[in-house]
Amino acid sequence: MTALKLTIGLTSAPFDRVARVSYEGQAHFGETGPAGECCRGCQFWDRRTDDRGIHAKPARCKKFTRLTGKPGAPVPADAAACRYFSRFVP
Ligand code: SF4
Questions:
Q1: Phi-psi bin for 51: left (phi > 0), alpha (psi -120 to 50), beta?
Q2: Is the model's pTM score more than 0.85?
Q3: What 3-state class would DSSP assign to 45?
Q4: Ligand 1 centroid to 63 CA: how many Å?
Q5: Exposure string over 17-27, b if 16+ CB within 10 A, otherwise e
Q6: How far apart are CA 27 and CA 11, in angstroms?
Q7: Which among 2, 44, 81, 90 would be 20 to 30 A from 72, CA to CA?
Q8: Residues in CB range of 47: below 8 A, 6 or more apart
Q9: How far is the CA of 71 from the centre of ligand 1 (A)?
Q10: Maximum Cα interatomic distance, the chain, rounded to a whole number of Å
Q11: Which residues pair with 85 in a beta bridge?
Q12: Mutate-to-test residue for ligand 1 from 18, 63, 67, highest number of ligand atoms within 8 A of CB
């Protein structure tokens, strides 16, 4: 599912795949982080809101907030990790 809103009329480009796997509210594009990792495993994913396993509700990315100065849209737990991924250690 495409998470980012794409503009009609633009032609495809090699980096389209990255946009398709990225979600509004992520600190950077999905799949730019470690292979196979997702936001749920990142220390910046705000799991305080609700953490009920892999089906946890989307949560805000604290790195996004830090970079932009405002909270972003909640990001799904299974969103592909971005370049700012930092492993969550309980
Ligand atoms: S991998 Fe971490 S820093 Fe990147 S969008 Fe997901 S929660 Fe945010």
A1: beta
A2: no
A3: strand
A4: 7
A5: ebeebbbebbb
A6: 25
A7: 90
A8: 40, 56, 59, 88
A9: 13
A10: 45
A11: none
A12: 63
d(CA 24, CA 9): 21
Nearest Cα to Cα of residue 79 among 2, 18, 23 = 23
Token pair recorded at residue 80: 């592909």
Q: Which atom of ligand 1 is nearest to the CA of 64?
A: 8
The tokens describing 16, both together, are 């389209």
What token pair was written down for 33?
């982080």
One-letter amino acid for residue 49 of the chain: T
Q: How far is CA 37 from the centre of its chain?
A: 11
